[in-house]
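Is this the right way to post structure tokens for a design question? Let me know if I should format differently. Anyway, here goes:
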């Protein structure tokens, strides 16, 4: 469960049962006058027990413990308030922090995601998603006074380590990585994962999440990094993985455009059903509903990129948004 990845930096594996991500990599940094816990897991008993067992093994004192969330997703922030010490801090990028709103009723979530029915994702399916989606059910239940915003370039010092905040929007609007420049270590969160591809979806108020993500990848591509500590699963070659992710999205953009050219007038839900996904399901109809929601959201981000670039057109017809090639 505990792995020392560098002196006084430990990885704690927090199991995520029933989730395809399998496990969260939580990191614990031991300092001189304070300690720092990076990311916490879903707000569920099995996650709490796993993280607490790891911290107990490390003899972590809550009175010294601040918490840092790489982004707002509940598998990273869901228990932040439970593991930050009394009077300590819970750090998060300012943009993501502003979007934490606690547990909302289903109707409020539906209002936030009005795009889905317009794109062919039925309200019935949407209600099913939000009845079980951990983004709603396993998040921090309310705002906490210890929440502290971080901006691009802010520094957190823990013992000999200086964590430089790098704002890398895309996976979430306020997603951050944290760079130990002297040690050439990067806490990548979900911005860079090595054996799975980060989910990039559309966000209310964000015109082009995928464009933001690609720009963020290019921004940090050439930073010297010897050790990349990701939010899930294994590590790997930092620069090479960024190149792979950039190439992956070029292929996905080409795939979406090819589908639109071959069948003009499809809605996003139909386009997503024709795209190829790495999931154990016989066909689109067999997708678990939450995974269908994630896939449709990822399709949104690729369509938004095309709309921004002027390569596709969107026309509302029969109550649905339908896509056509611009040429």
């Amino acid at each position: 469960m505990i792995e020392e990845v560098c002196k006084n930096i430990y990885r704690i594996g927090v199991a995520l049962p029933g989730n395809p991500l399998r496990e969260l990599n939580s990191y614990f940094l031991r300092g001189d006058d304070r300690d720092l816990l990076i990311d916490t897991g879903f707000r569920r008993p099995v996650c709490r027990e796993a993280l607490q067992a790891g911290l107990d093994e490390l003899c972590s004192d809550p009175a010294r413990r601040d918490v840092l969330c790489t982004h707002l997703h509940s598998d990273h922030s869901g228990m932040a308030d439970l593991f930050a010490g009394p009077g300590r801090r819970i750090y998060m990028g300012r943009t993501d922090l502003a979007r934490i709103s606690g547990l909302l009723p289903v109707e409020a979530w539906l209002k936030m995601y009005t795009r889905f029915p317009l794109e062919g994702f039925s309200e019935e399916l949407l209600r099913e998603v939000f009845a079980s989606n951990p983004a709603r059910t396993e998040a921090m239940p309310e705002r906490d006074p210890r929440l502290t915003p971080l901006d691009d370039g802010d520094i957190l010092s823990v013992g000999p380590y200086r964590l430089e905040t790098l704002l890398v929007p895309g996976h979430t609007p306020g997603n951050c990585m944290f760079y130990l420049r002297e040690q050439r270590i990067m806490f990548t969160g979900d911005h860079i994962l090595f054996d799975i591809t980060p989910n990039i979806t559309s966000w209310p108020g964000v015109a082009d999440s995928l464009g933001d993500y690609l720009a963020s990848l290019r921004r940090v591509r050439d930073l010297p990094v010897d050790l990349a500590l990701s939010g899930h699963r294994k590590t790997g070659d930092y620069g090479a993985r960024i190149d792979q992710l950039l190439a992956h999205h070029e292929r996905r953009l080409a795939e979406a455009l090819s589908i639109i050219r071959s069948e003009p007038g499809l809605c996003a839900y139909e386009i997503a059903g024709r795209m190829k996904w790495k999931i154990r399901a016989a066909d689109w109809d067999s997708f678990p509903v939450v995974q269908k929601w994630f896939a449709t959201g990822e399709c949104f981000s690729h369509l938004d990129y095309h709309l921004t670039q002027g390569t596709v057109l969107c026309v509302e017809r029969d109550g649905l948004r339908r896509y056509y090639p611009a040429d």
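Format looks fine. Someone answered above. Worth noting: The longest helix spans residues 238-262. DSSP finds twelve helices and 14 strands in the chain.
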